[in-house]
Automatic annotation (TrEMBL):
Gene3D superfamilies reported in the protein's UniProt record: 3.30.70.330, c-terminal domain of poly(a) binding protein
Lineage: Eukaryota, Metazoa, Spiralia, Gnathifera, Rotifera
Gene Ontology CC entries for this record: cytoplasm; nucleus
Main location: cytoplasm
Keywords from the named record: Cytoplasm, Nucleus, Repeat, RNA-binding
Entry's family note: Belongs to the polyadenylate-binding protein type-1 family.
UniProt protein name: Polyadenylate-binding protein
Domain PABC, residue spans: 408-484
Residue ranges of every copy of the RRM domain listed in the record: 16-94, 104-181, 193-270, 261-341
Organism: Rotaria socialis
Location(s) in or outside the cell: Cytoplasm; Nucleus
Any Pfam family hit: MLLE
Keyword Zinc: no
PROSITE patterns, alphabetized: PABC (PS51309), RRM (PS50102)
């Protein structure tokens, strides 16, 4: 019966390949060959190494010629010391399904520091065939107080959980449960009893600190770290009986003022936990940076030539725009402005485009002419132009579409109607002024000023330049009469001499 059972186990692993783990980084294939060749002929040994650094990954594969020799090595050499570390030997599982599903995997914690993998293996071997047994250790080789056992079947694992959970192993009550991966564990608040304390310096000694923390609950242990001279390093640890007391101590004493310092009190974390948290924060920051620059970088990681900067206050943003807009960075001139949403920017550009079109419709028709100055007294003298007999003829003319000025293009009436009063004056000034010098160069400025005082609604309905010229001639006549009157008034009165 015993022979048939051994044969069945061997047949379940016909490749005769063993996994050897927990190796020291200095262990080589030659050392493993010397160790395992005493059992039987070996086909190959491979120590797995990093592809870049070529450092050992601390595990290897040993391939025997016969499965029976592999089985004998597993039974007799498991947990043997090599380079100061116990070997962890198990059958090579090429298919990862068994490892990933977690079937038959058991988690054990609250283990005594003196328990090693060999003692744990024999303590649980009565429940079924064990594929792997491991105690987790830190960098210095000390036990972390928990480990894993992988049974060949789930039935054996369930039996071990039912029998061993809550029992004592080396005078400590252990916890045994099914292994759960990080993804499958339920989200629950982390409970802790050990508290880390720092920033108390030399203000408080160990007795004063113990008294301060004893007010929060019952203390199991308390320690202040000291250097080789016995001086305090300014940090220590406090372990409470319950997690509730530890949480209360953190809430109450974290930030507690001691002289000019503030006490830091938080959950104690082991080095690998701190490193894991630092790594998580770095990954989170990297992800935030990726999201922040999303859309301004191409798929190849090249910049698209634009970006965004968010300031804490509007004043800082305005100052940045004033100082940085138009500045040179590298070989290019920067444009810096307020960030706008795509729809807002589109509406603003459409509005600006419409304004430019309206301005160009007016300004493109006229030249850069200087508006002449007017004489108020002259304007009063020529107001009768509006009531001349020629105006009836002008009003009877059919309303044209635009004014035609010599050397100018047509100006639509709607442009004048939509323009402001100042724009109307400027437009009429620039359209009537070019005609005036052709007839009376010395009076051109004054004549143009007179025309600007005529009703704009009548000016822009003229059909041809001839009608406008008629108004100019009328203005010249009035202007000449006004100047003649002024000249006569300026002559001195003459009197004949009388005889005395």
């Amino acid at each position: 019966m015993a022979t048939s059972a051994v044969s069945a186990k061997i047949l379940s692993h016909p490749e005769a390949s063993l996994y050897v783990g927990d190796l020291h980084s200095n262990v080589t294939a030659t050392m493993l060959l010397q160790k395992f060749s005493t059992i039987g002929p070996i086909l190959s040994i491979r120590v797995c190494r990093d592809m870049i650094t070529r450092r050992s990954l601390n595990y290897a594969y040993v391939n025997f010629e016969e499965p029976i020799h592999a089985k004998r090595a597993l039974d007799t050499m498991n947990f043997d010391l090599l380079y100061g570390r116990p070997l962890r030997i198990m059958w090579s599982q090429r298919a990862p399904d068994l490892r990933k599903t977690g079937v038959g995997n058991v988690f054990i914690k609250h283990l005594d520091k003196r328990i090693d993998s060999k003692l744990l293996y024999y303590a649980f071997s009565t429940f079924g065939n064990i594929l792997s047994c491991k105690i987790m250790r830190n960098e210095s080789g000390e036990s972390c107080g928990f480990g894993f056992i992988h049974f060949e079947t789930q039935e054996a694992a369930d039996m071990a959980i039912n029998k061993m959970n809550g029992t004592f192993l080396v005078y400590k009550k252990i916890y045994v449960a099914r292994f759960q991966s990080c993804d499958s564990r339920p989200d629950s608040p982390c409970k802790f009893t050990n508290v880390f304390i720092k920033n108390f310096g030399d203000e408080l000694d160990e007795t004063q600190l113990h008294e301060l923390f004893s007010k929060q609950g019952e203390i199991r242990s308390f320690k202040v770290e000291r250097d080789e001279h016995g001086n305090s390093k300014g940090f220590g640890f406090c372990c409470f009986e319950t997690a509730e007391e530890a949480e209360q101590a953190v809430k109450t004493l974290n930030g507690y003022s001691i002289g000019n310092k503030q006490l830091y009190v938080g959950r104690f974390e082991k080095k690998h936990q701190r490193l894991s948290e630092i790594k998580r924060k770095k990954e989170l920051k990297k992800q935030e940076s990726t999201n922040k620059y999303q859309g301004v970088m191409t798929s190849n990681g090249e910049s698209k030539g634009f970006g965004f900067v968010c300031f804490s206050t509007p004043d800082e943003a305005v100052k940045a725009i004033e100082e940085m807009n138009g500045s040179t960075l590298g070989s290019k001139t920067l444009y810096v402005g307020l960030a706008e949403r795509k729809q807002e920017r589109r509406m603003r550009l459409i509005k600006e485009h419409k304004q430019q079109l309206q301005t160009s419709n007016i300004s493109s028709q006229v030249g850069l002419l200087v508006r002449p100055q007017t004489n108020p007294k002259l304007q009063q003298e020529i107001t009768d132009i509006r009531s001349t007999k020629h105006m009836a003829h002008v009003n009877s003319v059919e309303c044209p579409n635009s004014i035609v000025v010599v050397g100018q293009e047509r100006l639509a009436p709607t442009v004048i109607n939509n323009a402001t009063l100042q724009e109307q004056k400027q437009t009429l000034d620039e359209h009537s002024f070019p005609l005036t010098p052709q007839m009376q160069e010395e009076l051109s400025g004054k004549i143009t000023a007179i025309l600007l005082e005529v009703d704009k609604t009548k000016l822009h309905v003229q059909k041809s330049p001839d009608l406008l010229k008629a108004k100019i001639e009328k203005a010249i006549a009035v202007l000449q009469a006004y100047e003649a009157k002024q000249a006569n008034a300026a002559k001195p009165a003459t009197t004949e001499p009388t005889d005395s």
